[in-house]
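Q: I'm teaching a short session on how sequence maps to structure, and I want students to see two examples side by side rather than one. Could you give me a first protein with its sequence written out and its structure tokens following it? Keep the formatting plain so it prints cleanly on a handout.
A: Of course. Example one:
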Amino acid sequence: MTPRQIIERLVAALAAMPGLVESRHPFEVFPGEDTPGDIEGRSFAVGVLNTTATPNERQNRANRGSFFETTAVCAVAVRIRPHNARADILAALDVELDAVQAIHACDRSDGFVIDIPQIGPREYDETRKLWTTRITVRCLTLYPLAD
């Protein structure tokens, strides 16, 4: 599974959540210039940070390919209303939990292996009234041999 396929798999998992929409901005600039009105409450972006070979040579299969570990990040932004910030931040933590559950429930029928080693940092942008959480996802995938 390639980094692009990992992004597509995680986007599909998060897009299935009610009320959560993929940002029009790429992960690298998320939430970008989204304003609270653009976000309409909740949005997300997914990106990959790096891919490294697994150190365990026993996992690499000469006839199938090589195993790699890819670190992906799912960023979720929630609009915070100034007159109800505390309640909205608590609700944002619920959205975070739902996102973690959606990621864990993503399609793994082809041997896609993931774990979530970190949730955070969590950041509040006072000016734009946005709460953003970053969920780190470690993915173990097989890079197949060329045909």
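Q: Perfect. Now a second example for contrast.
A: Example two:
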Amino acid sequence: MISDLINLTKNCKKCYGLGYLEDASLCSCRLKLYRYISYYEANIPRIYWDCFYSSFMTSKANNDLLKSILTEPEKNIDFLNLGFFGPTLSGKSTTAAMIAKAVIDKDLLSVYWFNFTDLLYQLRRRFTDNTVEAQIDAALKSKLLILDDLGRDFALDKASAKTEITRIFQSFFESARFIILTTNLFITDLERNFDVKFNSLVSLNLTTITFQSGTI
């Protein structure tokens, strides 16, 4: 993947693949490369690296909040504990990725992205695979953790997995770090399928934003 990213600069007509302009300043292609490498290291899926929305499928108040976070993330750090609820294709994951990139671009916090299904799989393998352990550590040491796509399959998962996720949430909130959760479950689904402790952590710490149905 890194070699593929480096190839992005080779055909640049501004710097002819050198990465620098005549005045010795960095070319835009090199700046883009650095951003992409940062997104890659944060485990953000490639499909989100270039995405951008100017409006969101939610209420005006929530639109204003999201725009403020994206425009000036350094002034809105305290609002990064977010829960995005809504149906598939309503823009939850893309919005989470946009916030992650805004934080990375301004070098505000370390960020790590995990799809919930992947996280569960990695948690089960962490004690037998050192590479998995390293990935889990990177996620748990981040200042902003994106937990994407909590679905009904997880709601039906065994209690030990739910306990592990609850422990992660508690650790982040107690250490004044941040989580962005995206899910196609309703809040009532969480209440029905998770224990009181998990639901209490979510309700007390995450600003919930509901996205409307649509195709994004």
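Q: What should students look for in example two?
A: Point them to this: The two ends are 26 Å apart (CA to CA). Also worth mentioning: The first strand starts at residue 82 and ends at 85.
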